Amino acid sequence: MPIKDVYEERVQARIKPLYESMDHHEAHLESTESTSMDSHLEALRQLKEKRHQLNGLMKDLKEASEHGWQHIRDGIDTAIEELKHAVDAARAKLHGEK
Q1: Is the pTM of this model over 0.90?
Q2: Distance between CA atoms of 43 and 16, rounded to whole angstroms?
Q3: Are 40 and 93 in contact (CB under 8 A)?
Q4: Burial (0-12, 13-18, 19+ Cβ within 10 Å), 76
Q5: How far apart (Å, rounded) are the C-alpha atoms in residues 49 and 5?
Q6: Residue-wise DSSP of 39-67
Q7: 41-45 contacts at long range (C-beta below 8 A, 24 or more positions apart)
Q8: If you average pLDDT over every residue of the chain, what do you get?
Q9: Distance (Å, rounded) from C-alpha 43 to C-alpha 51?
Q10: Is the alpha carbon torsion for 70, 75, 77, 80 positive or negative?
Q11: Closest CA to 90 of 50, 52, 62, 57
């Protein structure tokens, strides 16, 4: 299996739980009345923006040649870390407001 494909599978495994957490956060917001709904909606908007950016990078990765994909790798790794921190912050905020 080409290195690019192995990397892509690893990335998918890293982002799947983040996307699931985002979906859970959004579903929770839809089913609750929060006193700070605006800040939660803003956090959710930021999460969606980061997800959209990461999806764009993943599309670039799929379209890149076997030899030209490495320059996309750093951007993807950074985007995953930013999304992870944003998801963790949103989760903490959501669970801290109970």
Answers
A1: no
A2: 19
A3: yes
A4: buried
A5: 25
A6: HHHHHHHHHHHHHHHHHHHHHHHHHS-TT
A7: 43/86, 43/89, 43/90, 43/93, 44/90
A8: 87
A9: 12
A10: negative
A11: 50
Closest CA to 76 of 98, 97, 56: 56
Tokens representing 52 are: 């959209």
* Measured distance CA(65)–CA(47) in Å, rounded: 29
For position 98, what pLDDT does the model report? 45
Overall size of the chain counted in residues: 98
pLDDT tens for each residue of 60-86: 999 998 888 988 999 999 999 999 999
Contact 50, 35 (CB under 8 A): no
